[in-house]
Amino acid sequence: MNTIAQAPKAISMYQASAPRFVNALNNLSVLLDKAQAHCEARKIDPLVLAACRLYPDMLPFTRQIGIACDSAKGAVARLAGVEIPKHEDVEATFEELKARIAKTVAFIQTIKPAQVDGSEDRDIVLKLRAREVTYKGMQYLLGYALPNFYFHAVTAYAILRHNGVELGKNDYLGQP
């Protein structure tokens, strides 16, 4: 029997952003728990692992987590048209990184769908080093914010995995 596929439902800007960021950030928090357990089991100083990089010219693990948090809260705030909360970049321990993630998730959860939905054509102006770039909301979310966020999230995962923390793809994606 042939069935005709239903037309796909539209996804809102909110659904494409806030819940996705929250899910991935919560997964990063679980990775931090696994990294802490790895360090305890092998008697490794957690500060050493937190300072690791994939390559000398790349940012360390702590900054990958910080930038992932900044990317998520910045994206949701810009799309909602609200001020981006400021978080100092002072985290050095896994516990401090988990607190940074928790603050970021808490902020994102204050944003209501109505604040983000309809932002597809909102002008988003980013200061990228010495220049400003203007995007429309949809272009910003899909072409910059999500790829940038996932770059830093997966780099954090890769640093831990490279250093022997027993992780798999389901740890990164989270459990359904």
Which helices and strands, and how do they pair?
Elements: H1 13-42, H2 46-50, H3 61-80, H4 94-108, H5 113-116, E1 123-128, E2 131-136, H6 137-162, H7 169-173
Antiparallel strand pairs: 1-2
Helix pairs in contact: 1-3, 1-4, 1-6, 3-4, 3-6
C-alpha termini separation: 31 Å
Topology order in helix (H) and strand (E) letters: HHHHHEEHH
Shape: globular
Which regions have little confidence, pLDDT < 50, spanning 5+ residues?
Answer: none
Domain unit count:
1
Q: How many β strands by DSSP?
A: 2
Enumerate the strands of the largest sheet in spatial order, edge to edge or round the barrel: 1-2
The CATH architecture category equals Up-down Bundle
Query: How much strand?
Result: 5-15%
The major pleated sheet works out as: 2 strands, antiparallel
Helix content: 55-70%
Class based on secondary structure composition and strand pairing: mainly alpha
In CATH, the homologous superfamily goes by the name dinb family like domain
Number of helices: 7
CATH topology: Four Helix Bundle (Hemerythrin (Met), subunit A)
Rg computed from alpha carbons, rounded to a whole number of angstroms: 18 Å
Provide the residue-averaged pLDDT. Answer: 95
CATH class identity:
Mainly Alpha
